[in-house]
Amino acid sequence: MIALWFSQHRQALNQVVSRLWRNRLATLMMLGVMGTALSLPALLYVMVDNLNRFAGGIQSEPQISLFLALDAKPDAIKALDERLHQQPGIRSYRFVPRDEAWQNLRQNSGLGDITGGLEQNPLPDAYVILPASGTPEAVEQMQREMQQWPGVAHAQLDAAWVKRLYSLVELGKKAVAVLAGLLGFALLAIIGNTIRLQILTQRDEIEVSALIGATGRFIRRPFLYAGGLYGFGGGLAAWLLLWGVVGLFNLSIADLARLYASDFRLQLPGWQAALLLVGGAVGLGWLGAWWSASRALSGIDPL
Amino acid sequence: MIKFDQVGKLYPGGFEALKKVSFEIAKGELVFITGHSGAGKSTLLKLVAALERPTAGTVLIGNQNVSKLRPAAIPYLRCKFGMVFQDHKLLYDRNVYDNVALPLSINGIVGQEAGKRIRAALDKVGLLPKEKAMPVTLSGGEQQRLAIARAVVSRPAILVADEPTGNLDETYAAEIMSLFLAFHQVGVTIFIATHDTQAATASGGRVLHLDHGVLQ
User: Across residues B188-205, what is the average pLDDT?
Assistant: First the structure.
């Protein structure tokens, strides 16, 4: 019984593979179309994924600068220091005396000429705080709290743009989902239609097979295999396209990144994503074929 | 083996092809069904081979009531029959050998075992030298013999043929008929629809006569 089952499946698979091979050109075109359709959401996913990684890389960077009042007394500074020491959620903090800041500014910023014209140091004492938690919401919350502290003239969060980046990534993720859904449906329709045409050209064979005792499953099997194989080939083609496009982009990104002294590169998602892409394509192909075959075959059996 | 009890077939549109037909065929019997064209012979054969369901009465095939079978069970019933159709229903996109291979592949028989059976069947109908030929290159008689080879290759217990000699001249027709008789002699139940009453009577089988859907 199991041997029969295997033999029937092998037979169907052989039949399909030889048929696809006989129409190599058409098969290749088909795989090209499906690969292109699938590679679009995959490419967008790579972009969003890398943007996310990029945002993750600078996620620990957001820092809060506490500028004290210009006339802050040493007592007030000491009290603030105590408070920062006890405050949870802070990774590290550093006191920047106004003189040090003034020196830094004059030496490093290239504004030496301008600062030279100033008679006295306009900078206040400051604390630079690195929060421990990286989520933008938590950091923002901390910044708002510190703004209320006595002795603090201004609490500045220099990471608002990280939040914007995060929202952008969220939007990108949604776009990937929508695009994948739409193109997945297109794939279903393409494969379904291809299988339908194949069924039409093999109508005689199907009819005769049904008359001499072929089960619906037997008749449907080669078409399901064809759909699955189309999906498999389409998924692989999409991955190859993705690989090529990312490689091409990286050529330019490498140049650009070097200018910013960064070694940032677009990264392909891991093998899990590849498996998901190909597996999803196989599933869609199978489903499209099943849908199409069931519809077409219901009109053929004389009973 | 096959039992019809008050069987009627009403086609959509109101055409009543069969009216209260009752008969029984025993195992190993040779039965002819005759009648003018449109008398309901083809309909009767389709009911016998479970290609259609009756609209009245019961059709029992090997004690199974065809009307009560699930659609999914019908193919297994059809596998028990060797069918020879009036229009051959050969597949013209493949050669003689592959045409005969079809019923075997449906039953999961492939490879050497299939090859042996296919050549045996082709040998029986005298088409072995033409196994690589395409069906269009065969004469009408040869096509009919190919159809018979395909019907017998899975060694069915019952052989059902619809006008197997309909479009053939006398020599070919006699050839085909003697083929069926040869199968009958090795124990196969044979059920043939034909308008050739003379040949039917001459063969020594039982003859059922249909007239406007009524069994005489």
Answer: 85
Nearest to B89 among A5, A211, A215 (CB): A211
User: What are B112-138's pLDDT values in tens digits?
Assistant: 889 999 999 999 999 999 999 999 999
Contact present, B123 and B148 (Cβ < 8 Å): no
> Residue A215 and residue B76: Cβ atoms within 8 Å?
yes
- The pTM score is 0.71
Taking each helix axis from N to C terminus, what angle separates A216-259 and A271-297, rounded to the nearest 10 degrees? Answer: 150
The per-residue DSSP string of A47-111 comes to: HHHHHHHHHHHTTT---EEEEEPTT--HHHHHHHHHHHHH-TTEEEEEEE-HHHHHHHHHHHSS-
Q: Amino acid letter at A241?
A: L
Q: Model confidence at B174, in pLDDT bands (50, 70, 90)? A: confident
Percent of chain B topping pLDDT 70: 100
Among B79, B105, B150, the residue with its CB nearest the CB of A11 is B105
Q: Does B89 touch chain A (CB under 8 A)?
A: yes
Length of chain B: 216
**CATH class of the domain at A64-158:** alpha beta
pLDDT averaged over every residue in chain A = 83
- Residue A207 CB contacts under 8 Å (≥ 6 apart), including other chains: A300, B89
Q: What is the mean pLDDT of residues A82-107?
A: 80
CB pairs under 8 A between A and B: 64
A215:B103 CB<8 A: no
- Domains, in order of start, for chain B: 27-53+68-215 (3.40.50.300)
